[in-house]
Amino acid sequence: MNNTYLAIDFGGGSGRVIAGQITGGQLHLDEIYRFSNRQIKMGNHIYWDFLSLFEEMKNGIRLAVQKGYHVTSIGIDTWGVDFGLLDRAGNLLGNPRCYRDPYTEGAPEEVFKTLSPSEHYRESGIQVMPINSLFQLYAMKKECPDLLECADKLLFTPDLFSYFLTGTANNEYCIASTSELILAKERSWNWELIKRMGFPSHLFGEIVMPGTSRGNILPSIAAETGLPADTQVIAVGSHDTASAVFAVPFPEGKASRCAFLSSGTWSLLGVELDEPILSEEARQAGFTNEGCTGGKIKFLQNITGLWILQRLMQQWKEAGADTSYGPLLQQASESQISGMIDVDNPVFTNPADMEKAIAEYCLSHHQEVPVTKGDYVMCVLKSLAARYKKGIEQLNSLLPEPIQQLHIIGGGCQNQLLNRLTEEALGIPVIAGPVEATAIGNILMQAQACGAIKNKNEVHIS
Ligand code: LFR
């Protein structure tokens, strides 16, 4: 089975190895392996288990080889902002921290004591979130300056996996943009800010664009996995959202009038643009300008997405209730609940009891309090749809032309009730799919880089 592209997609809860092939203009996907990803709390910190993730990735690759796939290339995408540090000999310094580590609490407030938020936004175009690498590095420098002093290179999570596969250490543009340390217009490191923060400048390496080869796999990886020695690792849109947006079937020439909603734990709502929007209005409305494939910009809002529903379901499951999606959504569609919540309110970030957090919010905001499970689900879905409406209105006020249609991609687009509520709230057509947008975008970029396709639009995705 020739010309296979392997997408390795790491999410906050699981990682996957997916094989992709393009035959007769049609893309075929095969999910080879899925493994869990956990956040590990140790001492006062929360880490990713990088070593086990690396091992699981190799297990998945090995299974693909055993299944008979002849792998041409590999592309890796992950969540944003997190990174690992290498020492001068190329060894990993400690386990990479997880962005939910509380060490960045209060860091933005401290940094913005001496930095103007508006000026900073005009340069970086990134929505300030404590989880961003800028604040992680600030907190790390404060807590253990020695670590930064002895580090030679900073590699974002997909860069780090690629490094241990190839020995090439560089920083892919899309993932680097989530650091808040990139100049949005120039697509290069913000050296002035890096210096001002006191971060060693040698940590930040060459920025490579999606589609760049990171070289062949190391002989030791070929021996361990059975991969051909000339298997390349391609830098794809290595921020998962960038790969997902690459898979959106925007009608040709109309991308700026079509919004996307990458729907999963987070809801990422925005448009793909050629250049960033760095105005004060964009900053105030909470928009971020992250890097996209082709050096483009994804101008979007990070909205608390299906996280609230995922937590509710987990809680009900732990209490022994039946949490099959179908019946729950059926009950929700029959609910007449009028109560709504502000999904982005910090009370929903990580409450011990999500049901209680929703009930308390409704009570204190004079909203009808949900009673049944169906009411709770409907309350969350209606609130998400209302939040998307607000986001589209804010986009319309910043763009030259109003949004004409919304593409919902990712796992969340399977929620037909939410799609319907969103369409009703927005009053524009909603197009659902692809579900596997991230893996598809990852594979299409590899196929393009390897010269198998000229343009992603040639490929039919069923
Ligand atoms: C989605 C995502 C978002 C980012 C969040 C944390 O998986 O990549 O784009 O804001 O994870 O990094």
Automatic annotation (TrEMBL):
InterPro entries noted in UniProt: ATPase_NBD (IPR043129), FGGY_C (IPR018485), FGGY_N (IPR018484), Rhamnulokinase (IPR013449)
GO cellular component: cytosol
Carbohydrate kinase FGGY C-terminal domain location: 260-449
Biological process, per Gene Ontology: glycerol metabolic process; rhamnose catabolic process
One term of GO molecular function: ATP binding
Residue ranges annotated for the Carbohydrate kinase FGGY N-terminal domain, each copy included: 5-246
Pfam families membership: FGGY_C, FGGY_N
Keyword tags: ATP-binding, Disulfide bond, Kinase, Nucleotide-binding, Rhamnose metabolism, Transferase
Origin superkingdom: Bacteria
Sequence similarity: Belongs to the FGGY kinase family.
Protein name: Carbohydrate kinase, FGGY family protein
Provenance organism: Phocaeicola coprophilus DSM 18228 = JCM 13818
